[in-house]
Design a protein that fits this description.
Helix content: 25-40%
Number of helices: 3
CATH architecture: 2-Layer Sandwich
Number of strands: 10
CATH topology: 60s Ribosomal Protein L30, Chain: A
Structural class: alpha+beta
Order of helices and strands: EEEEEEHEHEEEH
Shape: globular
CATH class: Alpha Beta
Largest sheet: 5 strands, mixed
Distance between the termini: 44 Å
Radius of gyration: 17 Å
Number of domains: 1
Length: about 180
Amino acid sequence: MHQIDNLLDVFLQPGELFVADSGYQIRTILGSCVSITLWHPETGLGGMSHFLLPSRGHQVRHAEMDGRYGDEALALMLSDLRTRGLDPRECQAKIFGGGNMFPGTAHAQGIKVGRRNGLAARELLRQQCIPVISESLFGVGHRQIIFDLSRGDVWARQVRPTQQELEVHARMECPI
C-alpha cells in the first residue's frame, strides 16, 4: 500500500477484496476474473473484489469464506459494509472483467470461465437488490482497473493480447 494523490493505494491480487473509506483507491488487473465494486455515495465507503470463479460448486462444511469465489467474495464485502452500519442495497455496483485472454484457442473451458464469472456477478447483485450502474465485461484481453473511493469513479482500460502472446499460448496448447 502506498499513497497517490492523497489516497492510499491498494492493489488486489486474485482472491482478495478490500473495503474502506474515501481515503483509498483500489487497483487490480483482470483477465477472465471479475471485480465487483460497491460504493455508498453518501458516506464514500465502498469496496472491490477480485474473484476467479463464480462459486465453489458445492458447499464445503465449516470452510472459511474465500474471496476466490464470487458468491463468497460478495458475501464478505456485504458483511463488512453492514458491520460499518451500511445497508448494501444503498450502494452502487459496477462490474468489470470476464475477458477472453486467448481468442481462437481450442480450450473452450478457459474461454467460458470469464463469461460465467460476469454472468454470476450480475445475478449475485440482482439477488441482493443492489443496482448495477455500470459494467465493462467480456471482450478480448485483460483490463486494468482503478477504483477511487473518494468519488466512486472506476477507470477501466482493456488491453488486447499481442500477437506474440497469442503465438506463445498456441504453442503451449499444441506441442509439436
